[in-house]
Amino acid sequence: MVDRSFADPSLAALYDVLNPWGAGDDFCLGYVMSAGAVLDVGCGTGRLLREARAAGHPGRLVGLDPAAAMLVQARRHGSDVEWVLGDLRSRCRRAEFDLVVMTGHAFQVLLGDEEVRAALHAVRQALRVGGWFVFETRNPGARAWETWRPDRVRRVTDSGGRAVRVWHEVEEPVAEGRVTFTETFDCGAWPAPAVSRTTLRFLPPDALSAFLHEAGLTVEERYGDWERGPLTATSPEIVIVARRAS
Fold first, then answer.
1. I want to staple 223 with a disulfide (CB 3.0 to 4.6 A). Which of 65, 108, 218, 239 is the partner?
2. Domain residues for 117?
């Protein structure tokens, strides 16, 4: 999960510990390795692009993120990738990329219809004709937020060997496809817990497809999980592979 809490430098260093490499990263890496110029929107610590370079990707790799603390982590391990502070609307030029990826459920921070439209328009503008847009968003039918409870505590170890407890709590009521929750990070060595508040939007599949069509992006593949399973009413993910046709 990508959220604004990781704008804090002390928490950005925990991102990869809390979100280890998984099936979604493998899925996206395959597309990255087959593309010449790649833009990773909301790149976070840059793990995907760093892995692509390590695997021998010879082309242009650009990571874009609005959180400077995340890019600090990215630059520590990936000096041969372009790391850019900003967002799609402020930093993208026309027809620069063969592939745009948006991982870590970053798409869900686009809360309003106009935000979604502006982001997808910027994606289309950034892609060359025939270029691909790969991203995922949680399927609202799976109701993932019901598992974000304070009794489900994760325990991780930071770079200094200190134990950190992390938990979520959803604010009720949940309405209009938007879920607001707090995320709490607690370490005995800290003077106080760090608490962030985030809102995510859960768009249903048909609405998502309509936004993509309106932006001039054609959905070529749609899955319900990272193993390319069919999208059902309760699939955990909506995984989209779209293309700029013209």
1. 239
2. 4-139+203-244
